[in-house]
Amino acid sequence: MRKLTYALTLSATLIAAGAAHAEDTVMVGGQSMYPSKDIVDNAVNSADHTTLVAAVKAAGLVETLKGKGPFTVFAPTNAAFAKLPAGTVETLVKPENKATLTKILTYHVVPGRYGYAKLESAIKQGNGKAELPTASGGKLAFTQNGPHNIAVTDEGGHSANISTYDVSQSNGVINVIDTVLMPK
């Protein structure tokens, strides 16, 4: 009887721990994103971000994005990259275009942690618009675009919607976007 009670208690504890752990994750690209992993280690598991991961590798930014941070990455999906003119991605990942690719990718990175609540607060404080500096030296503009929807606009006026917010990472946060943003 004592063994049965112990087994049931252990099972209940494991189930509760698994449920609590599942609550801490967000599904992106069909996979759980774990707050204990860094930006790169989570992104490589997302089926929706294979193009972004390949571009990060081609630009030599893996170690940077595995760094301490904190970083906020506005992560374009494969579908976002597919919106670019034909051949753009293939051209950008060539070694001779590494500087351009690096500038584009670091334009999607903002120093600090900016989840939905912090972005919304910044927009309210800015009377409907917030601007944040990117790691590439540019700026991204943020506006409220309906209830619980924030749009991100690049310096050329192109907008992306954030489709998934607050994907916590050990070194920052990822917000998934539907369009590739371009620096000046």
UniProtKB/TrEMBL annotation:
Q: What is the top-level taxon of the source organism?
A: Bacteria
- Tell me where the signal peptide lies: 1-22
Transmembrane regions listed in the UniProt entry:
none
Start and end of every FAS1 domain? 36-181
Q: Which SMART domains does this UniProt record tie to the protein?
A: FAS1
The answer to whether UniProt assigns keyword Signal to this entry is yes
| Keywords from the UniProt entry | Signal
Q: Which Pfam families match?
A: Fasciclin
List the PANTHER family: FI19380P1 (PTHR10900:SF77), PERIOSTIN-RELATED (PTHR10900)
UniProt name for this protein: Fasciclin domain-containing protein
**Source species of the chain:** Collimonas rhizosphaerae
